[in-house]
Sequence to fold (642 residues):
Amino acid sequence: MPSTPPLTRRRTTGVALLIAGLVTTVTISTVAVTAPAGAAPAAAVATSALAEPTTLATDEDKVEATRVLGINPGIDMLVLNDQEFVLALWRAARDGSFVKAAALGAYDTSDSQAAYAFIKTGIFAAAADDARAEIAEARAKALRRSVAVTVGLDPADTELIEKNDRDFIFSVWQRVTAGSHVWTAARDAIADGTTQDDWTAFLTTGAQVAAELDMREAIEKADAELAAQLAAQQLATAKRSLLQLLLLPVTDELVNAPNRQFVLYVHSEAKGTEVRLAAQAALNAPDAEVSKALSDFIHTGGAAANTRDEQAAAAKELAGYVSTVTGIRDAAKADGYQPNLLAAAGQALTTGTTLALQTFLLKGQEEARKLDEAFRAKATWDFDGDKKPNLLAADVNTGELFLYRGTGTGTFEPGRTAPGRGGWNSLTAVFSPGDFDGDGFSDVIARTAAGELYLYRGTGAGTFMNGRTLIGRSGWDAFTAIFSPGDFDGDGFSDVIVRNAAGELRLYKGNGRGGWVTGVGILIGRSGWNAFTAIFSPGDFDGDRFSDVIVRNAAGELRLYKGNGRGGWDTGVGILIGRSGWNAFTAILSTGDFTGDGRADVIVRGAAGDLRLYKGNGRGGWTTGVGIVIGNSGWNALTIVS
Fold:
């Protein structure tokens, strides 16, 4: 038995196969082959991946993280591993907060570094987002309180102030005098077809303007004494409204203070730069104009300046979100194997609104990450249900089928099991399509010497169900190569590709129930594919979510033919990914992601019977191009199923 070696997890839903003395080969249509140079095979030392759970965070890291939530952690919390500690933070965080969403994302992921990264930096970034959101909400409530004062409603009415902008305006319309300018402005602001821009316009300027019109008309109708009272009332209302808007305390002393003293107070206490500048300008007005300047600031200028401050704050907030989402997008792009996250981040940035970016950060990114993880999970040829890659191989002498379990960290578990007794050495082709019958477990397809095709259904526990199912009657022995790319046409079901004696490539589409859509082979490659000495599929090798095909030519070069996800090719041009030297290997195959990094890899067997791993980079090439020894001599006595 071959010595037990490095292996990993994940395999694309389809996998190619190679047999010890049988080279499975395929070729792509009659197209030119040009592309960048790839890796030449060479030996190297095996590497390993980080394990989970992790204990990277120190007590100091954890104490700093809990301060965000106002928690004083005890020993029982400090001794938790990183993932358990993040879960504890999630439980303590406020519902609906960025911190809670980010904690869930860091805990509910297969990335072993995510929890530590959240403890060190992620929780602080999320807390900053929460702070910005709280400030924005406080400003919105302050604006509604200010409007309530302006139109004569109670700013202490919590139920009123807690409403969203549209419902608040609707309440204003219901409560003010019917037919008044405020009533008309509120009605128009919430009419059918209005948007947030219309509601904001009413809150920031419309209500004030309408209230002034109502007051002016009332003054014009009143006698001189009443007019003075109404003017004083209007001024007091304007002062209260401005104080509410600026989140400053509202007191009778301030409201009744002379205008200059009131503006001086606003100038010294207001936080907004524009408000302070506008107050300073009013205070510095010439003597002949200062009374009007102070009045204008109280009635309209202060609110207008506050709007400019809020716009600047909103722009800064938006820039912060853009920076955060851009970082996520760029990291996903660099990773090359997170297409859903890349697309979701790109869409949020294209939309460009604070709401779109917040929505992405709160839930969109996690939904996209889960889709990417689900896709990667399909890229793991897991035969025993532990979500780690395995290798099946048949003894060429005894015909027994052996299962070599991967650890998920680039090595094999000790020993092997025998899910299939004698007889496997009589088969002329053996390969795995992944899950061919839709039960969620990886299966195996085998061709007999009589040209029949049989399906061996996996149980998900490292064994087969009793019996086998005939899925192809005689005639399959006419094909010189047969393998599976997994789902090649994008319908979610595993397919099979064959090469005939004329060198044509044909696709047999699986129906997801252990059979075929029509049973008719669709031509996907014209004559010329018989020039290749090996052909197999690693699943998605370039990170575009579509299954690809790799071939070896007589010169020993390796070329990649990129699938388009619709049952055909991206360009039909073979891209050079390995220079001469690959013909020194007696078997070449892929079990998809073998190293647990989400990227498909390639395994080869040397003439001495050793097994080597070439790690894919997820972009159609190699991480180093150096073959890592994962199995010593002995593998040449086995037919390897991939």
Summary: The chain has a mean pLDDT of 86.
